[in-house]
Amino acid sequence: MRPLADIEAGIDYRERNSAEPAEAAGELLKFGEEILEHWLDAHDKAPTGEKKEGFRLLALHRQAAQGDPSFNACRETCRELAYHYNLITLDALHAESSQRLVMMVMVVRHLYLFVTGKMQTAELGEFCCASRPLRANAN
Fold it and tell me: Does the pLDDT of residue 131 top 50, yes or no?
């Protein structure tokens, strides 16, 4: 599992550099898994190796949300990451592959920001995935 700073740098790299779409999509999906692994590790849980609906990412999310209903705020983010992965890998030569990859970068960044924000502010996600508690504490 890479350090969170390396994951963030990898997301930034993928945002700036085009690559073979299927390869980049696989790396972005792996970043999503590793982000959730950090959450589980921080809560003394061993990350599962199981899959849900064909994705380890979704099984990791299910595991992470157990005992913390507010973590469900990022469930659709995880599902959207899997969706874009499927779109890209099913037809990497599609005319919209580059736009799909851009969207996948944005979604994995959103997951990164949510999880790292929730590590700092446990209440994050109780109302929505907006960072309202973070902004309120900053003033």
Answer: no
